[in-house]
Amino acid sequence: MGIRVAVAGASGYAGGELLRLVAGHPEFDLVAATAHRQAGHRVDVVHPQLTGLDLVLGETDPSTLADADLVFLALPHGESAALAAHLPSEVRIVDLGADHRLADPYAWAQYYGGTHAGQWTYGLPELPGQRELIAGSTRVANTGCYAAAITLALAPLIADGAANPADVVVVAASGTSGAGRAAKPHLLASEVLGDLSPYRVGTHQHVPEIKQATGATGLSFTPVLAPMPRGILATVTAVPARGVDPQQVLAQAYADAPFVHVLAEGRWPHTAATLGSNSCHLQATVDVDSGRLIVLSALDNLGKGAAGQAVQNANLMLGLPETTGLSVWGVTP
């Protein structure tokens, strides 16, 4: 008998990716998966890519999840905290929602609204010292997808003193799966195909998380919806605080990080290369005209940006090698 794992919110895109990863994990036994409207349906009906996974989605209720050793919460923002509060303290939890990411109650109220549920250990192992904190925690708040891509690109530059934290500009494009699986008119194929559209300009909810994780004090962030199912490509620019080779700073920061790859000079990240993996690809340069530092970051928003990151965190929490059950290589074409 392996480690007993349950997935709440298993009918969504991140939930489906979690099911795929958990079912293929050599140390995990998938014992429960829950949903709201899809409760009572077979997993392979809701997720046809999981044909042969003999499991019926249960109701999202603490009693359905309490017998697991570890629970993944892939619920809408604002729903995780109440459910987690009713699970036994010995059950390890990785929350893919935003409920426990932020330390500042004011930032929560400003960007999400409602009551702040308190902060858990932040689930990005590549930040200095964070791997050890995650390994010693029973409650971990998984990163946001944009936050993962941008933080991995920016945090080492600010920590090194190479980038001015007060002047960071980010434009990032994401696939439509980042908006969830609910039917929304602006996500219809007829609306998305052949189009790039910005949204939540200057007000995106990942801004306080990115500032908290990177040490940035001034951040302008423009997210863009791209006509593809999954993937994020972030362009991060900052004013240099001193003369530096940004690629060298990143290479040193991630020399021992199995899932973060600083590409060779002349190669630039693109989303297809990270599809289906838990990897983030980075490349950096200095703009010859403005002198600004530029870092390009690509990852799979359902992989390193969500489900893959969650499994990486779970591995650390359970004392397993963090790469267990995860791929560093993408699937293309």
- Average of per-residue pLDDT values: 95
Instruction: Count helical runs.
Output: 11
Strand fraction band? 15-25%
Spatial order of the strands forming the largest sheet = 3-2-1-4-5-7-6
What would CATH call the homologous superfamily of the largest domain?
Dihydrodipicolinate Reductase, domain 2
Biggest sheet descriptor: 7 strands, parallel
Q: In terms of per-residue confidence, which ranges show pLDDT below 50 for 5 or more consecutive residues?
A: none
What is the H/E string? EHEHEHEHEHEHEHEHEHEEHEEEH
Count of strand segments: 14
Could you explain how this protein is built, in words?
The chain is an alpha/beta fold and 333 residues long. It is built from eleven helices and 14 strands. The strands form two sheets. It has a seven-stranded parallel sheet with strand order 3-2-1-4-5-7-6. Strands 9-10-8-11-14-13-12 form a seven-stranded mixed sheet. The longest helix has 15 residues. The mean pLDDT is 95.
